[in-house]
Amino acid sequence: MVRELTPADTTRAARRGLSAHDAAERLARDGPNELPVARRRSTLRIVVEVVREPMFGLLLAAGVLYLVLGNLLEALVLMAFACLSVMIAVVQQGRSERVLEALRDLTSPRALVMRDGERRRIPGREVVCEDTLLLTEGDRIPADGVLVSGQELEVDEALLTGESIPVRKHVIGEGARPDEAPGGEGGPQLYSGTLVLRGSGAAVVTATGPRSAIGRIGRSVAEMQRQPPRLQVQTRRLVFILAIIGFSLSACVVVLYGVLRGAWLEGLLGGIALVMSLLPEEFPLVLTVFTVMGAWRLSRSGVLTRQAAAIETLGAATVLCTDKTGTLTRNQMSVSALASGDACWMADDPVADLSAAPALAMLLDTALLASPRTPTDPMERALHELAGAAGHHASAAGALLREFPLRPEWPAVTRIWEAADGARVAAAKGAPEAIAQLCRMRGEAYQAVLARADALARQGMRVLGAARAEFQGMPLPDVPQAIEFRFAGLVAFADPLRETVPEAVRECRSAGIRVIMITGDYPETARTIALQAGIDGGALVTGAQLDTFDDAALAGVVSRAAIFARITPSQKLRIVNALKAGGEVVAMTGDGVNDAPALKAAHIGIAMGGRGTDVAREAAALVLLDDDFGSIVHAVRLGRRIYDNLSKAMAYILAIHAPIAGLALLPVLLGLPLLLTPMLIAFLELVIDPTCSLVFEAQPAEENLMRRPPRNPRSPLLPPALMFWSLAQGALALATVAVTFLVAVGGGMPEGDLRALAFVTLLAVNFTLIFVNRSFGPLLHMTPHARNPWLWRVLGLAAASLAAILAWPAGRAFFGLGPLHADDLALCAGAALLLLAALEGLKHIWRDRLHA
């Protein structure tokens, strides 16, 4: 639905916004505010993709061969295994799709709206016609609408016009119609997908979803990145190499069976079994499941993953650059001190003292006039709360004539008001040094202001200066510096440190991650908060000092500095590039529009979900829902765990395929009947697939996870030491199965019994490899918390299925297995336990190299 509103309509709608009931009705009527895009794979599409995998084709080929040989029952059983394998893959990938869908909903743009007279942050897809949008600098506009109130609002409409020049927007007036095209200067119309570059305002929605301007021209929203490209390349290369080896050996097996024995069909079965044993089709499945489930686990910890490659990079981070306000601190501001001349008020003094001191009352009045009437910033809310407690109201009740917003190069905001009698008041607040310069203070007066600000800042307070000017009859100035301001005093705010921060900083230090504070706040305030947080041992550098360094000098400075204060967003980018040039892997937090370049440049850009702008969130790889520094450290811990478990799963897959392939090839070399049939390998795959994708994904973190240095970001998924360890496991597992098999051959065991003994030994060896690869350290050293319920579910189901097959004569006949006695089962179990002891002994020697 597209709604055209008159100015009277928009003014009336903007007062309280829609009610929750009306919004729900409109959402049901018009549908969600999103563009039509195929966001989720259907079950049918997943099934089609799964059956196109080579493993399914091999199972079908083996079934056809059994039919040719006249073994209808074996063919049907193999088809059943194929269907079961497809079902498992579909369930796992369907689960991944549901998780991705939930993550897309979480990472979709958010909108601040008025509902039932209250401000509410809702998903952009829930915005409806006649909603009142509250917009501020850095917001991505979620729907088409008309501006009903605002100041200095400028919008980038390049998405629709191709022109990057900002367009100024005016409030809708009497008789005006919101029908100008995108890119028009001075109109009230706002468009979905465009970006607020400057100012703030309120708009009433006129069109949503496909009915918006962007919807009508068929634009779509970029979806979440699918897979980490580097891991994809490594996995595909490994799968390709093993597939070539498998198909080559398979062809040799077919030729040997056909030429030497004349059994071409049996040779084809043996060749299919061999290529099935060597084809690591689990690798892509594991990569998909771990990446998607990793993003889901991060989201449960309050961290949204916008770029899945960040999961891989998290474990390699060496430097964590963090903001102060709201990240290290609670961002719950309260006015802790007012200072004007000789008068001073502290938070523990009675609020009645403010009205008794005219200078302090004037200071509070000035700070209120420099703030919006409806505050959103925590400091401005604190000012209004103090004024309310003291019974103080701002003196100017007239109209706001002009606003000079905060700029990176000028850290102060100025507002000019006009009362009913024509008197005008200009009020400014901002950095003490900027306000002192605005008042043209020099020499001792200037130094006295800075000294007093330093004294307050050393107590951990955030300090602002305030200035005031009263005039009448003169034209409005173009810049605030043209006004004759008088210094009103200093306002100090308390923003306590988050309780979790000191422990999180200590954990970073033990993990080899250096924490650097980068803030726009006063240097002494930054130093005090840093010391409270445990960020010490480094120099403090100000933005003014940073501008004096060239790139070479800055590279040396960033290697020593722990605190950067009075930093602008453009300087953040220089710091990130200097750290990267020094070989660091950088994680950087940010929340503003101008932070986007630094967030893009960092290896891991982290945007604030609470106070961050849409531009910062779009540029970042991760979004913190709670803006808490502890969540960043928790994300690093989870990232390390995910990468660890992914490496363990890959090592296990490589190790288990060695004995399977060896047992498929051994009868060919020894001139014995085929042991591992395609049906038996299919049964093994039903154990291996959930093991590598569920058991290892759910494995708890290693005990020393955050006591290890960051890994080398250029290291492969299976580094040489881990690759060697995996191949050594596979070789020993193959030797164990082969020796057990040869002992049975020497004892004259019948073919069916021999196949049963070899298969049970292989399955027991598989269980051993699962246990060995659960941890990089010895199993005896695993802590009690390292329980994994999925391990026992999968192993229990596999053992129960095997027991049923062996105990049921018809089941044994299906698989071509003979009966096993207690001594045979004891031999299988003994071989597996012997392998476990040997591998655990080797692991104790080799464990320190597994993280190299």
> Can you summarize the main beta sheet?
8 strands, mixed
| Cα radius of gyration in angstroms | 34 Å
- In terms of DSSP E residues, the strand content is 15-25%
Record the strand order, biggest sheet: 8-22-21-20-9-17-19-18
Give the termini separation: 60 Å
The helix count comes to: 30
Instruction: Identify the quaternary structure here.
Output: single chain
What helical percentage do the residues reach?
40-55%
Number of separate strands: 22
Structural class: alpha+beta
Shape: elongated
- Mean pLDDT rating: 79
Unreliable spans: 5-13, 174-178, 218-229
Task: Report on this structure.
- The protein contains 30 helices and 22 strands.
- It is α+β, with helices and mostly antiparallel strands and 852 residues long.
- The protein has an eight-stranded mixed sheet with strand order 8-22-21-20-9-17-19-18, with helices on both faces. Strands 1, 2, 3, 4, 5, 6 and 7 form a seven-stranded antiparallel sheet that branches. It has a seven-stranded antiparallel sheet with strand order 11-10-16-15-14-13-12, with helices on both faces.
- The radius of gyration is 34 Å and the shape is elongated.
- The two termini are 60 Å apart.
- Mean pLDDT is 79; it is low at 5-13, 174-178 and 218-229.
